[in-house]
Amino acid sequence: MQRPPMIRIILTDDHTILREGIRALLAAEPDLQVVGETGSGEALLELLATTPADVVLLDLNMPGMDGFATLAHLREHYPEVKVLILSMLDHEKYVSRTLEGGAMGYILKNADSAEIMHAIRTVADGRPFLCTEIGLDLLRKLTQLTPEKAPDHGAKAPNDLSGRELEVLKLIAEGLTNAEIADKLFTSKRTIETHRQNIIEKTQAKNTAALIKYAVNQGLID
Asked: What is the pTM of this model?
């Protein structure tokens, strides 16, 4: 029986533990090979100069050259490389921006292992991929847009926020700092900063005071 062609992968994320986890996940797959990993966009471009790859798993929120800028460089200098965005940012603004910028797929970091491997194989085959969670969210929003209900470009309804984002918003409104929220939720400060950015994008709030007012108006706090 002929073995499937090997898909060469480079992991680009500034969280070492995440790269190690994905590398371990893919090690058991006969057609998936991690040929390199980097923690920044600059390092990725340097690595590609000497290491051919079929698929790059690319984070968006990185120090220095972020994922958006990195994607632009990849499209210009390495157009043959397929890019799969692997991010915590779930707002459709980021999804559409990266897909328009040349990414072949977009998957969230909370996706299960089977979906991550399916996403890699799909984009390597030259087909677009959108993870289940984002696809279902976009479908839900489309079904809510009826002729009688035009899209609201102001503050979003609370069901546009995920359960964890609502939890973070409540703690922000209670006056906790990002570091204090991270300790309370047993996660990293960087993760809370990402959730906070998502909340700001979704609610259209301009500052913390606006976030607190929004939380009060939605009944999240007294």
From this structure: 0.66
